[in-house]
Amino acid sequence: MNIRVPYYYKDFKCIADKCTDTCCAGWDVDVDKKSADYYKNVTGEFGDRIKSVMVMHEDGEAHFTLKDNGWCPFLNDRLLCDLYTELGEEHLCDTCAYFPRFIEEYGATREIGLAFSCITAGELMLKDDTPVTFENTEDGKPVSAYNDIDPQLYFFLQGSRKKSYDVARNRNKSINDRYSECLFYADELQKCIKKKKYTELMPVSCEAVKAEKGIKRKTLSEYWNIFDKLEVINKNWNVCVSDVKRYLYENADDDCYYAYYEEFDRYYADRQYEYEHFLMYCLYRYFLKAVNDRDVLSKVKIAIVGFLMIKELDVARFVRNGKTLSKEEQVDIMHLYSREVEHSYENFEMLTGIFAKDKAFETKKLLMILND
């Protein structure tokens, strides 16, 4: 089987109790069927402890009931896992064994990556301006499962994703122009998919979209009203959102808002690659999933909206700090955003549904925001 990973993947190592935001708190721990079956048969005092917190589902899977403080019931006071200590790494459920990795299989190819929701992974992904590339290896193992996918659509998307990568990494253009071009390209691809015309389509320079005065501030304010409805995974998310509302909306008029953005862009000129890496991450993680639902445009909108909201958080933090934003703060902001959006099933389903149907997220409006 062909294994594909980002070039930095091999350098990842969990730092366990040294992590500043443990992955063992704040969200439900789903237990796959194989692990649930094993845990049901663990005997003794520890087996009783497992059974007291494991809630079985009708499909044979389960989840662990969290403590009142939001911690996994097996996370001890030293921020280490009692289940790992008692049963060994080989008996961790899939959720714990794989995080922060995500895995997707497309026929004979397995793609593995790291999620920004892990601070340590985020530090690795944003550590420098090296353009993101991918490494392919053969593991010598047979294909584990054959996907019921349309091969023509798959190869069309695969080729189109490579072209999107080229757009994302083209540093001769501004980061906003690259996001705009990726979005415009996805919109054209979506038209081809709708007609089942899987002929090669090359990215072209995005058509100029004249932005209405103040549309970015007006529309992003509406976006924050939508984000207010999300389940909160980490209380620090509320702090970040409060900063946005305070510094960019309540205590700033239109002129001040856009002046902050201009000042931030000058300050951040040498670190635009961080947004490039986020775009590459989203393209790698989501683009090919369109082979399942034929909706590549919504997959790219995940990147566009993520960029817009993360940058709002960045500018607000920049203003609060007295016009600075450290690498550590950027990693933290992206990790909080990823946790909030990508690692809550309810949040992700709600947002992606809105991205696909709500006129506030239609391509033309997003392009106008990117160009405002």
Give your account of this protein's structure.
- This protein is of the alpha+beta class and about 375 residues long.
- It has two domains: about 25-100, no CATH class; about 150-370, no CATH class.
- Helices cover about 55% and strands about 10% of the residues.
- It is built from 16 helices and seven strands.
- A four-stranded mixed beta sheet has the order 5-6-1-7, covered by helices on one side. The protein has a three-stranded antiparallel beta sheet with strand order 2-4-3.
- A hairpin with a 5-residue loop joins strand 3 (about 55) and strand 4.
- The longest helix is centred in the last third of the chain and has 25 residues, at about 295-320.
- The protein is globular and about 70 Å long.
- The mean pLDDT is about 90.
How much helix is in the residues? 40-55%
Q: Look at the structure and give the mean pLDDT.
A: 89
The arrangement of helices and strands along the chain is: EEHHEEHHEEHEHHHHHHHHHHH
Strand content: 5-15%
Which stretches are low in confidence, meaning pLDDT under 50 for 5 or more residues running?
none
Number of helices: 16
Main β-sheet, spatial strand arrangement? 5-6-1-7
Question: For the terminal residues, how far apart are their CA atoms?
Answer: 45 Å
For the report, how would you describe the main beta sheet? 4 strands, mixed
Cα-atom Rg, whole angstroms? 22 Å
Q: Using DSSP, what is the number of strands?
A: 7
| Total of domains | 2
Global shape:
globular
Query: What is the structural class?
Result: alpha+beta
